[in-house]
Each structure stands twice: as structure tokens, then as C-alpha cells.
UniProtKB/TrEMBL annotation:
<dbReference type="GO" id="GO:0008903">
    <property type="term" value="F:hydroxypyruvate isomerase activity"/>
</dbReference>
<feature type="domain" description="Xylose isomerase-like TIM barrel">
    <location>
        <begin position="21"/>
        <end position="253"/>
    </location>
</feature>
<protein>
    <submittedName>
        <fullName>Hydroxypyruvate isomerase</fullName>
        <ecNumber>5.3.1.22</ecNumber>
    </submittedName>
</protein>
<comment type="similarity">
    <text>Belongs to the hyi family.</text>
</comment>
<dbReference type="GO" id="GO:0046487">
    <property type="term" value="P:glyoxylate metabolic process"/>
</dbReference>
<feature type="active site" description="Proton donor/acceptor">
    <location>
        <position position="240"/>
    </location>
</feature>
<feature type="active site" description="Proton donor/acceptor">
    <location>
        <position position="143"/>
    </location>
</feature>
<dbReference type="InterPro" id="IPR053398">
    <property type="entry name" value="HPT_OtnI_isomerases"/>
</dbReference>
<dbReference type="InterPro" id="IPR036237">
    <property type="entry name" value="Xyl_isomerase-like_sf"/>
</dbReference>
<dbReference type="InterPro" id="IPR026040">
    <property type="entry name" value="HyI-like"/>
</dbReference>
<dbReference type="Pfam" id="PF01261">
    <property type="entry name" value="AP_endonuc_2"/>
</dbReference>
<dbReference type="InterPro" id="IPR050417">
    <property type="entry name" value="Sugar_Epim/Isomerase"/>
</dbReference>
<dbReference type="InterPro" id="IPR013022">
    <property type="entry name" value="Xyl_isomerase-like_TIM-brl"/>
</dbReference>
<keyword id="KW-0413">Isomerase</keyword>
<dbReference type="InterPro" id="IPR017643">
    <property type="entry name" value="Hydroxypyruvate_isomerase"/>
</dbReference>
Length: 272
């Protein structure tokens, strides 16, 4: 049965960030993920996890200056120092919080940059991060992100990500598959999940169009969940969608996905 993790960057935004942990537990989640927790001291986050019996299963590396247009640093040869600093900062948080996986955002290709040079830079930086993460028991993940929502993003297709993984001089680079991004890029989601499963260590979801909860768009999530079960995927599925309205009201889709995995609910922003 699917195991769902609440993405606390986009869910429960009716509440301050540190209060979202209790809300996720009240809604039946055993695990959470977060895009960028770096405005909050890791000790405070650790306390919220412990107080609510939650696991943090995924963080992003810092993406640079989001307001200025940064969407990750890994493909930009001008930002080597910034990238390395971002890896060390993420490892500080992951180590204290017990996070088993870090997602390395590729970034937008700089204007005028040769694609081959961007790829070489990305490979070099991914290998650097993966080799630092490995001895700490942390997996490094890469995720294709659609170029409709994020124009110019370097890593946009699953086949491209598989090529990067094959080319990396590291055995600690894996795939983060986001159903919304796959669909938005016109990929055959079931076929690609079958193809990529040996490399997938994390899945995320949102419906399309709109990037809202399952059932608001056209993606067949019943089929996706059944296929993941058939394939033996036993990792987490991150709920990284923007609720159409109240977060808790929007969680009713889970009762159809996995009544055993999560109890029915009775009460109670950035892209990658």
C-alpha cells in the first residue's frame, strides 16, 4: 500500500511552518518532507518531529536566491563555491534531523551557456554531493522538473536523468520521480515508471493541470498507485501539491488511495 509523506512547504500553509508538523500528525501522516527548511534552526525542527512522532524523509539542497531567479546551483559553472556551501548546509540539517535523502536541484541553464558545459558542471557537482552524502548514509536524488513551470531548467526528462545517473562516477545517485512533472512533459507515466523503477527512491505527486490534489485533474492516480504496488515500490510518496482550498478538506482523496495506510480525516510555495 502507498506510504504518503506530507510536504510541509505546500501543505498546511494555513499555519506557521513549525505548527504544520502537529497538523500533519493529526491528519494521519507518519512522515513529512520539506523543500527548504533553512529559515528555521534544525534543533527546533527536530523537536517538532520528535514531539509528533514523525520522520522527515526528504529535503532539498538550498537553491540559491529564489527571489532572484535561482532554481538550484548545480549546472552553473560560475557557482561552484555556492553549490559546495549548499551541500554542507543541507548535510548539517539532514544529519541532525535523520533525513535519509537529499534532492539536488539542477538549476536553470545560464543565458548563453553551452549545454555540454552545463552538463559537465552538473555531473561534477552531483558526484561531489553524492560522495559526501554516501558515507553519512544519505542518498542523493535528482529530479526532472517540467520546463513549463520552470523554463530553462536543465534536467527536465526522465531519460535525461537516467543518462546522468549512468554517467556519474558514484553509486549514490538516484531518481526522484514526480508524477506531475512527468505528465507535464508528455511522458508516458506508467511506461516510464516501469523503465526507471530500479533507480527510483522517492516519488512525488500532484494532479495536472493546476498542480492540485489528486482528483482535480486528469492523471489516473488509482492506476499509478496500483502500478507502484505491482512493481514493488516500497518508498515514500510525497504529497507536493497546492491544495485547492483547505488542506485537510483536500485530503479526502487518500481514503480511496489507501484506507489501510492512513486513517480518514475527521478534523482537525517554490516548485521542485
Amino acid at each position: 500500500m502507498p506510504k504518503f509523506a506530507a510536504n510541509l512547504t505546500v501543505l498546511f500553509t494555513e499555519l506557521p511552518f513549525l505548527d504544520r508538523f502537529a497538523a500533519a500528525r493529526a491528519a494521519g501522516f507518519d512522515a513529512v518532507e520539506c523543500q527548504f527548511p533553512y529559515e528555521h534552526e534544525p534543533a527546533l525542527i527536530r523537536r517538532r518531529l520528535d514531539d509528533n512522532g514523525l520522520r522527515m524523509v526528504l529535503l532539498n539542497l538550498p537553491a540559491g536566491n529564489w527571489a532572484a531567479g535561482d532554481r538550484g546551483l548545480a549546472c552553473d559553472p560560475r557557482r561552484h563555491k555556492d553549490f559546495r556551501n549548499s551541500v554542507h548546509r543541507a548535510l548539517e540539517y539532514a544529519t541532525l534531523l535523520g533525513v535519509p535523502q537529499l534532492h539536488c536541484l539542477a538549476g536553470v541553464i545560464p543565458p548563453g551557456m553551452d549545454l555540454r558545459r552545463a552538463r559537465e558542471t552538473y555531473l561534477f557537482n552531483v558526484e561531489y554531493a553524492a560522495n559526501l552524502c554516501g558515507p553519512r548514509g544519505i542518498r542523493l536524488l535528482i529530479e526532472p522538473i517540467n520546463t513549463v513551470d520552470m523554463p530553462g531548467y536543465f534536467l527536465s526528462r526522465t531519460e535525461q536523468a537516467l543518462d546522468i545517473i549512468a554517467a556519474c562516477d558514484s553509486s549514490n545517485v538516484f531518481l526522484q520521480s514526480d508524477i506531475y512533472h512527468m505528465h507535464s512533459m508528455g511522458e508516458d507515466v506508467p511506461a516510464m515508471l516501469r523503465r526507471a523503477l530500479p533507480h527510483i527512491r522517492h516519488v512525488q505527486l500532484a494532479d495536472a493541470p493546476g498542480r492540485h490534489e489528486p482528483g482535480t485533474g486528469v492523471i489516473d492516480f488509482d492506476g499509478v498507485f496500483a502500478l507502484l504496488d505491482e512493481l514493488g515500490y516500497d518508498g515514500w510518496i510525497g504529497c507536493e501539491y497546492q491544495p485547492l482550498g483547505d488542506t485537510v478538506a483536500g485530503l479526502q482523496w487518500r481514503s480511496g488511495a489507501s484506507a489501510a495506510a492512513l486513517p480518514a480525516v475527521a478534523c482537525l510555495n517554490p516548485a521542485a
